[in-house]
Each structure stands twice: as structure tokens, then as C-alpha cells.
Amino acid sequence: MSRLKIALVANNIHFRGGMERYFAELATALCGDHEVHLFASEIDDVPRDKVTIHTVRTVKRPQLLLLLQYYWKSSNKLRSKDYDVVHTIGGITAKQNFVTAQYCQYAWGDTIHNVPGARNGITLYHEFMWRFGGFLEKRALTSNSTLRICANSKRTRSDLVRFYGCDPDKIDVIYNAVDAVRFNPANQRYRSQIRQRYGIPEAAVVVLFVGEYRRKGLITLIRALESLKEYNVHLLAVGRGDRKKYEALAAQHGITEQSTFAGPSRDVERIFGAADIFAFPTYYEPFGMVITEAMASGLPVVTTRNAGAAEMIEDGRSGFLIDRPHDAGELAQKLQVLVSDPDLRTRVGLEARTAAGDYSWSQLAQDTLEMYHKGLLDRT
Q1: CA 315 to CA 307: how far, in whole Å?
Q2: Which class does domain 5-177+360-379 fall in?
Q3: Domain 185-356 is in which class?
Q4: Cα–Cα distance, 263 to 265 (Å, whole number)
Q5: Fewest beta carbons less than 10 Å away: which of 80, 83, 267, 377?
Q6: What does the pLDDT look like over 343-354, one tens digit per residue?
Q7: What torsion do the CA atoms of 139, 363, 361, 302 make, to the nearest 10 degrees?
């Protein structure tokens, strides 16, 4: 394939988050053979000597001002450049020719209004933000300048067609990759070290949650664990959220001593190695990179059918799926089966590792390049 001049445009590019990691990995895989330019407010975890960095400086808060500043500044920076590929995540700049949909704002809005429990904590400001973000997203995805769209799951592809009226023939489904070396059952060697870090008993069955507390369903998990108090279970929640609120909720359900709430971690692969079960009762998840990372780590996963990565799980064999993210009873039943049977945890974890496969970031980059060339060829 010919050498391309590629602009990757995102709010942030680094390893501390799913959407952020997507472009960090893609840039790393592409920069050896192509001229790669990165446009973001924060850029890390990339080979700086092989890419060109264009920092887009914005305020951190409020989110609306950040979005507006980024949109305006990135559009101005891109206007004076000539790129073969301008690849964005969603509608975050004025013009692009390739868009990755790691999310569908209108699908999240539909979830808020129609799934019990999903509206918890949602304010009028949140409502405005998903509507405004969805407007920009739809504008980018349906623009005549957009040659191809990359959806991270079949679920996302369906949402883009349903909520934005995107042409299904322009959408390529490219699952997010997983680093099967970094996320590996061998990380169990850090089990004692990580448990000591968080003050978790060695003998406890650790149910791990990784992600944004509210949208990913931590409330449902806390409620579910109340009914498992007879077992030696410990909740480890790693991610972003109102920690005091969730600590109070844990106290309300009588699991304070069996719960640990921590911020995001740069060595999350080691944390997977210290866990026994991964629980992720998310309300809305276009993909859910942490799901495949947990699977690659050899953990049995319990998640909702709402997650795009659930497409890779055979229910009861390589993981367990629940139908209702708000149903603590349904979640507790699935967890109880795993908590009470260590042999089953081992078998399901092995199947999960196999199901996660060996879809590498280099292969994702290759599939993305094919999408670029398909779109550029169609334009000519």
C-alpha cells in the first residue's frame, strides 16, 4: 500500500481509557510505514520520535466549553494542512473523511429514556450534552466528505443506521483489538502484590469492576453483592466516579468491609491478574474494551447483552450474559454460580481467553488501512 499522510483527531490519545487507547495503538502501528499526525489535547504512550504531535489546548471543564474549544481549534489547525486521511472519533472537528464510531450519543439517550435505572444521576446538563454531542456526531457521520465509517461492533453499526440514518454500505465493523501479551493469565503472579496494595484478603473471591461508575452499572453490582455476603467476596471497583456516593451505597447494602473503590490505574493488567471474576453490568456499551481485556486475562466475565463485546461471548461457556442491567437479582444469580465454584471459574476463564482471540492492534491497523484505501478508491 502507498505511503499515506494521516491525521488522527481525538480529544485525548493515551492508554488511560478505551477511546483514548484506540488511537494511541493505531498511531503506534501505523507510524512505521506512514506519516502520522496526532491532534489531541493530551497525548501520551505513543512513539514521539515517529509521529508529529499537534497539541490542541483546551480547558478541562466544563465539558461543553472543552468540546466547543476543541472543535474550533482542531478545525483551524487542520484547515491549513493537506492530508490523505483525516480520521476522527465522532464529530469533534469540522471536516473529516473517515470517522470511527466508538459510541452513539443518540443510542445512549435512548437508553436513558427507556432502560430502568439508566437515568440515575442524569441531569438536564447531561441531557443537553448527549443531544448536542449527537448533533455533531450525526453531522460528521452523514457528511458527504465522510468516505467510510468504522463501527466497533455490530451493535454500533445497527445504532448508526437506526439513529443517524447512516448508509450501511459505508460502515465497516472493526472490533477493538486486545493486547493478548499484556493481558494474560500470567499476570496472576501479581495477585498478592495488588491485593496488598488495596488491602484485600488473599483468600477473598475478588469481583472486579473497571470503568466509569455510573454508566457502567456499578450500582447494580453493589446491590447484587448484598445477597452474596455469606460468601467470602470482595468488590474491587477501579475507575472514575463519585467515590463517596458509592461508598455510602456499599454501607447501605452492608458490604463496606467487602468493598474497595479506587481511581484509574496505569497497571490495570496486573489488577486483572489479582481478580477472580470480572463483572460489568453496563447500561450502554458500544464495545467495552475492558471486557475483552478481562477475557484475555483468563477471567470469567459477567456482562450485559447491551455491550458490543458481548458479541464475542457464548453465554454459559466463555462468559455469562444478563438481559437487564438494572436487575441486581439476575446479576447475583450469575455471580453466585461462579463465586461458589472455583473449577467453573477456571474453565470459563480458559474459554474466555480463547474467545478473546489473537486480534492484535497491528491487525486492526491493517484492517483500518484497507478501509482507508477502499474509501479513497471509491472517491476517485
Answers
A1: 13
A2: alpha beta
A3: alpha beta
A4: 6
A5: 80
A6: 999 999 999 999
A7: 80
